[in-house]
Amino acid sequence: MCFTVSFEGKAIKAVKEHLKINRDLKMNGEFNEIYYLVSGFTHPKLPVIKYHSVDVSEWGLIPSFATNEEKANELAKMTLNARSDSIHEKPSFRNSIKAKRCVLPLDGFYEWQHIDKRKQPYYIYPSDETVFYIGCIYNTWVNRQTGEVRDTFSIITTDANSLMEKIHNTKKRMPLILTNNTLESWVDPKTNISQINDLMQPYSTDLMSAYTITPDAGNVRLNRNIPEIKQRIEAS
User: Fold this and answer.
1) Which own/partner pairs from 177-180 qualify as long-range (CB within 8 Å, at least 24 positions apart)?
2) What sections of 54-190 are H helices per DSSP?
3) What pLDDT sits at residue 236?
4) Which of 142, 176, 184, 209 is the right S-S partner for 135, CB 3.0 to 4.6 Å?
C-alpha cells in the first residue's frame, strides 16, 4: 500500500516546472508546506496535477454519494489508496477512474518490512534522484448542508515489483508510478480506458532505490516531519 510519503524540495520544484511549461494551467489553492514524512491518515493537502489545473487536494477521496460531513470523513479514512485490480468495481472509485485522474509528484515514499514481530521502515526514492509521479484519482465533494467544497484524491496501488515484494513483504503492493511520457495520457479525460488499464502496471525495479531508516519513522507519538527521519541507518 502507500500511506506515508515525502513531499519536499524536488516535488515542489516539479510542480512549479509543470506550471511554467504549461502556462495555461491554473493553480487552485495555496501550498507552502514541506513534508519530509507525512501520513495519509492525517489527510494532508498536497498539489496534484490535473488536465486543466494543479489543485491543492486533500488525501482521502470522498465519493459523491457521501451524504454528510460525518460520512465523508468516515469514507476518507478508507480511500487513501485504490487498488488497480478492483478500481473499476468499487463504488468509491469507479466513476473517478474513467475521467478524473491526476498525478502526485513525490520525492519518495515509506514502507515497512515485517521481520518476525518487528517492522523495519524503508525510504524508497527514484534511482535518478528526480521525483516519482504517482498515478491518482480525484473527486470534488460538495457538502449539501454547508456548501463547502472539498477536492480529494486517492493514490492507486498495483502489485509489487521485485524490490517492493521484499520490502512490503506481507501485502506486496506499491503505488502506481508513471513514467514522464505517460503523464499527459493519464490526466487526459479522453484517454481510452483500455490504455489507462495498460498504464496500471508495477514500476521498473531498476528505476527505484531504497534504504533502511530509523524505527522512529513508525512512531506516531513523535514529530516525524524532520529531515533526519530520512537518514540512512543500517538495519539491526
Assistant:
1) 177/132, 177/133, 177/134, 177/135, 177/203, 177/207, 177/208, 178/103, 178/133, 178/134, 178/135, 179/133, 180/133
2) 69-76, 96-99, 162-167, 183-187
3) 66
4) 176
Confirm whether 235 is domain-assigned: no
State the Cα–Cα distance between residues 67 and 223, nearest whole angstrom.
34
How far, in Å, CA of 153 to CA of 114, rounded?
28
For residue 94, the enclosing domain spans 4-230
Residue 236 lies in a domain: no
Q: What is the CATH number of the domain that holds 14?
A: 3.90.1680.10
State phi, psi for 149 to the nearest 5 degrees: -110, 125
In a domain, 106, yes or no: yes
Query: Strand 149-159 to strand 53-59: parallel, antiparallel, or no bridges (unpaired)?
Result: parallel
Residue 35 in domain: yes
Question: For residue 227, what is the DSSP state?
Answer: G
* Beta-sheet pairing, 4-7 with 108-115: antiparallel
In sequence order, what are the residues at sequence separation of 6 or more whose Cβ sits closer than 8 angstroms to the Cβ of residue 46? 7, 31, 35, 56, 57, 59, 104
Across the chain, which has 236 residues, the per-10-residue mean pLDDT values are 95 96 93 96 98 98 96 97 98 97 98 94 97 98 94 98 96 97 97 98 98 96 97 85
Using DSSP's 3-state secondary structure scheme, residue 99 falls into helix
- How many other C-beta atoms lie within 10 A of the C-beta of residue 30? 9
